[in-house]
Amino acid sequence: MPTNDAFIRLMQFQQDTEALASIAGRLSWDQETMMPEGSAEQRATEQAAIVRTIHTRNTDPRIADWLDRITPQGEKESANIRLIKKNYEKACKVPGDLNASIARVTSKAHGIWATARQNENVAEYLPILAEIIKLKIEKANALAEGDECYDALIDEYEPNISAADISTMFQNLRPTLVNLRKEILTKEKLRVVTGNFDERIQLKLANELAIAFGYDLNKGRIDQAVHPFSSGSGDDVRITTRTDPADPFNCIYSTIHEVGHATYEQNIHKDFVFSPLGRGTSLGVHESQSRIYENQLGRSRPFTSWLFYRMRDLFGDFGIEDPETFYKCVNRVDSGFIRTEADELQYNLHVMLRFDLEKLLISGNLNVNDIEGAWNERFESDFGYKVERPSQGVLQDVHWAAGAFGYFPTYTLGNVYAGCLFQKMKSSISNLDMSLSNGDLSSATEWLRENVQVHGSLFEPKATIEKATGNEVSVDPLLNYLEEKYKDLYDL
Known about the structure:
Blueprint: H1 3-33, H2 40-58, H3 61-69, H4 74-93, H5 96-119, H6 126-144, H7 149-155, H8 163-184, H9 199-212, E1 222-224, E2 230-233, E3 236-241, H10 248-267, H11 283-297, H12 301-315, H13 323-330, H14 344-363, H15 371-383, H16 409-428, H17 432-437, H18 442-451, H19 461-469, H20 476-489
Helix pairs in contact: 1-2, 1-3, 2-5, 5-6, 6-7, 8-14, 8-20, 9-10, 10-11, 11-16, 12-13, 14-15, 14-16, 16-20
């Protein structure tokens, strides 16, 4: 068979596999938004069936034969072959029944977690969490083949980085973050927005913001969920948000964050759809988009000036007299428990806690029955106050119920990548602040589209950021940005 024929056949086969993966993602989206409460058992069976089918395709022996016959021609072919080969080799290491079991259990776990969170009852959740951890350790052992198990799990979300690399990154970040936080907490607290904000109007504003940040609602939709998320690729990319009548920022910034994820997927080159290149290159790069949308752009002084007046138009007088005071409200550093609601300065401390705990869980050095106590002890040590209820602590995130061990460190990687990208963006767009002050995000989002998003998985994660910025990835741009911002905010 000529090489070209082998490549064509491989890509045709891969197209159907990618389409099935999209369907699996849609099932997960439905489970968290529209699915009836009594459907959990059936959905678990459906998820297991489709995961088993995808695994069978991912381990099809014809893939190895096609790969042997192909000499890649050009950048795109080489990238497709690299990703298919890696996926095939990984898939062959993991039994299909194990993947199906993980899909079945995590599908059931979502509802159990949501109920336990609502009931503030960790005990309801621990048995199925223990089952998930057991299965994930089994998968990690199969993938690692003697190497570090946790590294194998990280690789599912962020290729070519180890737990040791991430620990070094945290070590480089932590002193500055801790010291800056300590200084700020000695200062007078900034104002807070209070009142009752109509949830219907919040959703109206969420739609406006989504469009302003480049989200194509003709190929997406916004729904509500307990834990905001983005799902899908190509021409079907959906997001969720949440509302709280006492806290409009929850809806505003959850929406902007998820739009960052969604526009990344919508803006990938259309030629890459239903191929390995047709998705974000890693969760870290994905988070760089959501975090730069949410923070460097969405919480900036010029954009919050526009947002202040728009909120006054929609909600009337809400007790904040001017844009500068509003900017300080948006970026206020305060005691809090919830990672997704944390300010930029403290956010990474929340991630470090989760990273350290899940390493212990996967290594077997922390029993699942002790996780609540370990979480609460570490939280008090890091933040200086006690967790008051489980929904503020170990039950606040859906990730472990989804089996997503190794996911959390990508949030901080995303912050680091975002710092690098924003430094370059500022030097590349001369009128950036003026545009943001008018509620015009187009120059910023177009820069990210051209330099990051359009490439999909064409390049490795780190290479994607370095091509966009022209510099090596470093924590310095993020730390410089945070120090400049918060020293100004708190007059340090």
